Amino acid sequence: MQCGGHVIKPRVPAHVIARYKLPGLLFERRSSAIFGVVIIIMLWGGLTLKYFDSVRTDLHEAERNNQNFTMVFEENVLRSIGENRQGAPLLAQDIRNTGEKPAILIPIVDTTDVLSEIIVQVAIVDADGIIRASNAITQSSTPIPCGRPGAL
Asked: Greater confidence, 78 or 109?
């Protein structure tokens, strides 16, 4: 544009000029601009490498923790099965030896032969689904039905 013989240049904001200055400086091969870009690239590259290394380490730790929890769970299940395998025959033998009178069954469920760290509740249920004795409830004279007959 010209106004009275003078050339008027439109005013461009400084941030627009600064945006296009860096590629121009790189194009002119100014060492400080190239060095700055290289530093920025190295910084982002290092952060990216550190992130992926952290992700890989976290995944490895999660897999190791899962394996450890699986082993602990498996040991607890095997221990529970083993204690039940030992406790059930003892309980059955005591019931056969003493008879099925409710007054005699109550001391059987309270014995420490069957109870352990894992087995904390014991109940004797007859074929009709009625609880005859249990260490989880106070003993009453009336049997407690726990299911419909034949469902167990």
From this structure: 78
